[in-house]
Amino acid sequence: MNTEALARIREWFNTYTSGFADENRRLHPFLQLKFDHSLKVAETSRDLAAALGWDGGDIITAEALGLLHDTGRFSQFADFGSFIDAKTVDHGERGWEVIRCGEVLADCSSRDQKHVMIGVRFHNRREMPDHFDGDTLNFLRLIRDADKLDIMRLVNEAAARCTGEEFAEMFPGITLEGGETPELVEAVRAGKKPSFALVKTCADIQIMLRSWEDQLNFEPSREMLAAQKLQETG
User: Fold this and answer.
1) What is the largest CA-CA distance in the chain?
2) Of these four, 15, 108, 156, 170, which has the most CB atoms within 10 Å of its CB?
3) Residues 156, 160, 164, CA angle at the centre, nearest 5°?
4) How far apart are CA 209 and CA 221, in angstroms?
5) Model's pTM, two decimal places?
6) Side-chain half-sphere of 187: how many Cα atoms within 13 Å?
7) What is the Cα–Cα distance from 110 to 216, expressed in whole angstroms?
8) Distance (Å, rounded) from C-alpha 231 to C-alpha 81?
């Protein structure tokens, strides 16, 4: 991918997401959170691809994938008022449908289109499919790492600054108070990848996030996480 194609993708993304704004051109706070998250994941994806030594075109493709990975969140929230996939739609699948039916990737090579489309579609699956070629799997591994890194940042920031009521609104069904859920602890200890449906408390979120740390695919991802933790504690 080249910089001109990335610029058109950014223009498309800004136009698409602005369609979910109110009459004052403001996104719902939760959608604004997803918009900002998309920008951050794009940045992290670019930096991670560079740290892995990918060539310039693939670094740009990684950035585009990071920007588009949560495209499905916008219509999901507009249709259902929720980001809970299990109760609404799979947002990766929804994002894939939006991009597949549009012209956002029209100027990209078939290779770049494949990497972005597969990355968007499968970035949120509990188990990563392994039937793709190695090149495609590396893009999928990258977007899953970049997404996890920013979600960890967002959750820790929310836990530190939000009231219990605000936290429950941001994460429905989860409270700041309470201990660990035994079923979740058992699943993590058994080496499983538990469903987020088992998360009931802030303590559970921390268990889930720690399990995500072990799922990071690349050493530069772990280095980024260590730097992120240092910044949070500093």
Assistant:
1) 51
2) 108
3) 110
4) 14
5) 0.91
6) 18
7) 28
8) 33
**How does pLDDT run across 115-141, given as a tens digit for each residue?**
999 999 999 998 888 899 999 999 999
What backbone phi and psi angles, to 5 degrees, belong to 104?
-60, -35
Identify residue 233 by its one-letter amino acid code. T
What token pair was written down for 55?
A: 């060539």
Contact indicator for 178, 203 with CB cutoff of 8 Å: yes
pLDDT, one tens digit per residue, over 8-62 is 999 999 999 999 999 999 999 999 999 999 999 999 999 999 999 999 999 999 9
DSSP of 184-229, one letter per residue? HHHHHHTT----GGG--BHHHHHHHHHHHHTT---HHHHHHHHHHH
